[in-house]
Amino acid sequence: MIYDYLIIGQGLAGSILAYELSKRNKSIVIVDELKPNTSSTVAAGLVNPLTGPNMVKSWKVEMLYPHLVDFYKGLEEVTGVNFFSERIIYRPYSSAEEINDMDGRSAHPGYLKFIVQDGGERKHSNFIYNPYGGIELKGAVLNVLLFIQTMRQYLSSKHVIINDRVGEDQLDISEHFVCAKGIRASKVIFCTGYQVCGSRLFGWIPFAPVKGEILFLKLNEDFETIYNKSCFIIPQGNGLYKAGSTYERNDLSETPSDAGKNEITGKLDALLKMKYEIVKHEAGIRPGTVPRRPMIGMHPRFKNVGIFNGLGTKGVSLAPYFSDQFVKCLEDGNNLDLEVDIKKYYSLYFNSHFSERI
Length: 358
Description:
By secondary structure, the protein is α+β, with helices and mostly antiparallel strands. The chain is 30% helix and 28% strand. Helix 1 (12-23) packs parallel to helix 7 (144-156). It is globular and about 65 Å long.
């Protein structure tokens, strides 16, 4: 049998791409190592429409946000599992100047649709330092680990999932199909996260992986709001909270570090009014890119070898929209967004040693 698609990696990207292909009734084989502490399983899952120190709109948020809400809520109905929730994010102001800047931006419709209300500092001041007040924003949280576990069960009921590793040296690529470990497929799509940096097929793409660390906290106080100022604090229920994150480009080990913990606790101490207990410390490597955009498309030489990667810190927001776009490219011949299409980097392949290695 020749399957339609072989997908390498069942993290957030691989799970969502497989689901979109499944909706097209495509036959799929997914091969995944089930590694612990991947960026998907460690991810906070926060969807924050206004980001950065200046609270500017995230890239393409006006298209991405309604798409992701419909996508995850629809999958909850399909699977019968609750892993997604829309939540309020409270962002404290840092200065009077920041208040004035936000007042100017909030008058624009593109910002107004993501603002719940300005102020409300009294109800938050019991929990956080809040001298300048703040702003309540629309946001959302995906329980990424539960989502991936749920998708693994759902996809395995319809397709083949193999707990294994497929190295590129095990891949036999011909004009009409690819073969690995006895599996034949018309196309193979790599969704392998930051490990792509060592790829002989896609190592020429400008990836820039980033280590992120998070802490799980136990508090004696209960609150439902997500607080976000230099770091995020996301309620998990039962007095447990997730806090982070760090952005480290030099230490790319998957081991939690004292430096990471100290960075997060320093920010927590400046924000939280209450004491907390650290109950867990985790780290993962995000598949970031130099232009901070996803990397999607087909290999310049092998037209049946593709990649869906580089979702970085905003994978929860980006994956639903761009998996849908990629499937329409694969199946209908539609064009990819120019900012994510790896075609613009083809010259890096042809002008490098990568074109000579295969």
